[in-house]
Amino acid sequence: MLRRSFISVIAGVSLAAVSMTSAFAGAKKDIVDTAVEAGSFGTLVAAVQAAGLVDTLKGDGPFTVFAPTDEAFAALPEGTVETLLKPENKDQLITILTYHVVPEKVMAGDIAGKKAQVLTVEGDRLSVDARNGVKVDGAKVVAADVEASNGVIHVIDKVLIPEG
């Protein structure tokens, strides 16, 4: 039922990205457990739980998830996250979260130096530009290729909002 996958790639990994990626080192867990263990995705994990998408993202995949950090969620207008987490806004939350998910595993090397439109689980396309660093719909990829047992996570600095 998951409509979107998070996908992101990065050509050059900064020192900050290297240190963030090292937080994911160790045995491969699924996407949800990897995000929980990292400690910088509490809001994303809470949103996935509120949307009822935990089982989906723990499924076989493969998925590519463009994962906004807690700081990315904090940068949204005041009250946005709280509003989205309300039960009456579950459909909107699902739409936003599935816009961050691609239903295949895409590693940074697969798109390095290219520009592409990538279909998400939500049904729209993300604009990925990996020609000078990596941006996904304007969000910067700050860590790439965080492998999980059922896909890959690319960490982004903004929450992606589908148009319409």
From TrEMBL:
The keyword Signal applies. The keyword Transcription does not apply. Keywords: Signal. Gene3D superfamilies: FAS1 domain. One of its GO terms (cellular component) is extracellular space. Residues 28-160 form the FAS1 domain. It holds the Pfam family Fasciclin. Residues 1-25 form the signal peptide. SUPFAM superfamilies: FAS1 domain (SSF82153). This is Immunogenic protein MPT70. It comes from Roseovarius albus.
